[in-house]
Amino acid sequence: MLRNWYLSCVLAAMAAGSALAQTGTGFKLYNPAIATFPVVGGREWHTGLASFFDRLPQRISDSLRRPVWDLSHNSAGEYIDFTTDATTIDVSYKVTHKTILANLTTIAANGVDLYLQDVSGVWYWIQGAWAFSSDTIHFRYDHIQRPGAVKRFRLYLPLYSSPEWLNIGVPSVNSFSFVPVDIRQRPIVIYGTSILQGASASRPGLAWSNMLGRHLSLPIINLGFSGNGQLEVPVTGLIATIEASAYILDCLPNLYDAEKFSDTEVNRRITLAVAMLRRAHPATPIVLTEHADGLSSITLDSTYRAKYKRVNTILDSTFTALVRQGYKRLYLLTAKQIGFTDNSTIDGTHPGDIGMAAYAKAYEKLLKAILRH
């Protein structure tokens, strides 16, 4: 209670400071939406968007199921890099609606997360104070002590909500510059489910795709759609237009229901997705991922475990068939390689921070080996 009262007082003062910033006497605000170059990392499209922080271009909206299009407004995997000499950073923004889910923290769903990278490449997390009590969400980072020379700050955006606007503020006496997105780098593009979107990391920076991006120093495009990562042709076709360093198809957690997706249908969707990507990109690595929860070490619920193992068995046989057909640079990441234990998930399906770290580590090991060749 005392902490909440204290944060309310601090953040009320911060809001007043932000208002002063607009008059040029307190904090100066920087709006990524009016930058003259792309500044939102973690996505492929920077123009032709229905809303500034969308993950998919508006031109594809009519070909998508409504839930997929709605989820594409969520800013999962997106981040803003910037430089500043300030020791206090103030972030304020508004989301279209505050997402409340039983398996997500408020910070993960609706919050932001700030990191610092030094010139040697090491990343540091920065603790902040926050307030979600009003329409405008506030995060305040004070007394930032640099570990040495700083290369950049990285602000991760909410995993399960859609920012309407966002400002980054620093004291008027300090410098600030957005870091342009390096559009020359070929990203790793991932198509997946709620797990990829970020459920159930405790905060945005601990979603496994965000951890992987820091570990590999490569851009990651997070196309995770909660409950709706189903290897659908419109999404796969759009992914095929991206010049990537690797493609990852991690959709089995949304294909395990045998009443909706028979063995034949799961096989068909995997085969078609691989064929579409390979047709467009003959030499780009494609990774197929098992359902990480299909291990006996995770849960004693035999019914769910059997469902997860079913789709893994289908994936394994489909992968073997594709390799025999002559597909090259096709890789399988198994549940055993991901290595979940009974401490890895919050509910037998969605990884907590321990599970997210296991995901990131497994992908890092595989991708480093793949991308060396």
From TrEMBL:
The keyword Signal applies. Keywords: Signal. Residues 185-368 form the SGNH hydrolase-type esterase domain. The keyword Signal applies. Residues 1-21 form the signal peptide. It comes from the Bacteria. InterPro entries: GxDLY, SGNH_hydro, SGNH_hydro_sf. GO terms for molecular function: hydrolase activity, acting on ester bonds. Residues 30-174 form the SGNH hydrolase-type esterase N-terminal domain. This is Hydrolase.
